[in-house]
Amino acid sequence: MTANINIYSIREHKGQTLKGTIHLAASQLLEEEFVDGCWEDIVFDYQVTNAGELFLLEGTLTARHTQPCNRCLVSTSVQVKRELMEKFGRQAIPDEEVFPVKGDELELTSLLREHLLLSHPVKVLCDDECQGLCPQCGRNRNEQDCDCDTVSPDPRLAALEKLLPGHQGEGKKE
Ligand SMILES: [Zn+2]
Ligand SMILES: [Zn+2]
Prior knowledge:
By secondary structure, this protein is an alpha+beta fold. It has 4 helices and 7 strands. Strand 4 (54-68) and strand 5 (75-89) form a beta hairpin.
């Protein structure tokens, strides 16, 4: 399956829409070094409207992305979602970003690649309550307790925390 939409059926009919769903493999959008099993279930639900001079593409791109938990490094999958709206046309329009219609095809590969990469999560947690790795012995504290003394805070961190607002008793009570 290609990441193209054929608009033949609506090209002569202003106001008509075309709806569909495209399922994509990561390898269709991304270079091998970015694929690496971390993007899956890439789905693009779209609607194209013939708006006369332009074809308006509206869609929702969803995918599942896997990366290490920010605290404990366990492989964690999250669903990402991105709404997009772009214009396609047979000729350029001044001051508007218009992608070219090629024949009757809207070519979406590079567009979807860009939106997919923009939806890349900055950081993920396997669980909001993730205990992370023990800073002393490196054990995953979600799986196993350790006897390390990590209760007493790192004195350097404690000093830093004092500098943060809300740590000097000036915070408002609610
Ligand atoms: Zn975690
Ligand atoms: Zn430990």
